[in-house]
Amino acid sequence: MIKEKMTNGIARAKRGFCNIKTKADSAIIAAATAAGTTAMTNVGSCDGAAALTTALGYLAIPVGLLGGVFLIMGIIHYAGANSDGDGPAKKKATNEIAGGGMVIAVAVVLKPMVGAILGAVGVA
Q: Are 65 and 104 contacting, i.e. CB atoms less than 8 angstroms apart?
């Protein structure tokens, strides 16, 4: 008797567990459909070029910060390599400093030239 109840209980639990996946799938699909429908609705009049210009302008900020991190880390690595007298590490750190400087330069040039770049592509 007890064994039957345990077997029935385990079988019910397995069925319930299997249903969780289908319930979760349907909830995820419903949420994704609602999000997609909401994203596709026209919230207001928005010029595509203006939105792209704003997005690329905002993208320049974290790119510049990332370049600054690369530059600072390169300087720190160079100082460590210089104190150890390690030539290959100094070369690697020099390349890191140059890379960080180039990323900063890209961010500085990208921000004011976004409109010209989009105009050349034909978006603006």
A: no
**CA gap 63, 110 in Å, rounded:** 10
Cβ contact 119:52 at 8 Å: no
Tallying the residues shown for the chain, one arrives at: 124
- pLDDT per residue over 13-24, tens digit each? 555 555 555 555
CB 74 within 8 A of CB 99: yes
- Alpha-carbon distance of 59 to 50, in angstroms, equals 14
Q: What is the pTM of this model?
A: 0.53
**Residue that is written with structure tokens 């150890």 in the block:** 84
Task: Assess contact for 63 and 106: CB atoms under 8 A.
Answer: yes
Cα-Cα-Cα-Cα dihedral sign, residues 43, 47, 49, 55? negative
Q: Maximum Cα–Cα distance for the chain, whole Å?
A: 81
